[in-house]
Amino acid sequence: MYSLYIEVAGFFPAIHCEDRGLYSYLDRELAAFKGGHGDDTLLRVEFVRDSSLPEVIPEDSVVISPTRGLKVLLHHKLNDGELLLQARACQSSEYKINDDAVLYPMLLNTLLSFYLQQLKAQGRAHVCLIHACGAVRDGHALLFAGKSGVGKSTAARLLLEDGSFALLGDDMVPLSRDESGWLAHASPLGGDIPRSRLSNSSTPLEAIYFLSREDETGWHRLDTALALASLMSSVVPANEIKNSALQSINEYDHESLTILMREASILASEVPCYSLAYVLDEPPWEQIFQIDKDEGSAWAT
User: Fold this and answer.
1) pTM over the 0.85 mark
2) Is the pLDDT assigned to residue 143 strictly greater than 90?
3) Which of 8, 157, 273, 285 has the most CB atoms at less than 10 Å from its CB?
4) In the chain, where are the structural domains located?
């Protein structure tokens, strides 16, 4: 059994697994998130490769196909404070791929997503996820959200190159709320930026920018109604975190939509949100700083 102790969203789970290849991947990818002694929750991964999957899918399990010719049966359960993720992978003989390169990131994302879901379900944290790039400067966090392909990963790369920003994540950023307000946390969930380049921190959330590519650069503050409409397509409520890679808002049930509306409404009313249009290959950071000056933000330069 291999063990790894990490910090994520202010909590300190321990990850146990028996697969040496998976452990080596986790040890490398989560280097920036190591810490603590696993005091909060034990996350156990049972991972096997098989020649086929059962014809009848067990209750509370799901089959996903992360790439052509590869199917994975996932099941998770919580027993006496231990979160167990069971994964059974089956690769078609027609397709020869390096399945580790696909399986390991998927297992990591799934495990941590289930963990965040359980934190919320147990009432230990008011947590949700947002599809966004997150960056920190001078002790304040900014999120850059928007439709797929709008430039979130590009924004993350450029912010790193700038040198004055620390990066929380470039795809999914966990948010939590307490009596002092909203915090943005470093996220080892997905993305194109190596996790080793992320800064493992929890930082007060300053603002959310919804990016769009236009012929001219410009910005405006969104009123609460428009901010809510934008957040509805970006926030993933806790009870849907487990399916965030598989579902869109159009597939959420009534309960999930109700939770999403509530969490997005709180964000829209408490966190400044902006629409930020920019010209391709012309990063809008100067515009962001100008917003901060005009709004009297702590980010003003």
Assistant:
1) no
2) yes
3) 8
4) 2-121, 127-295
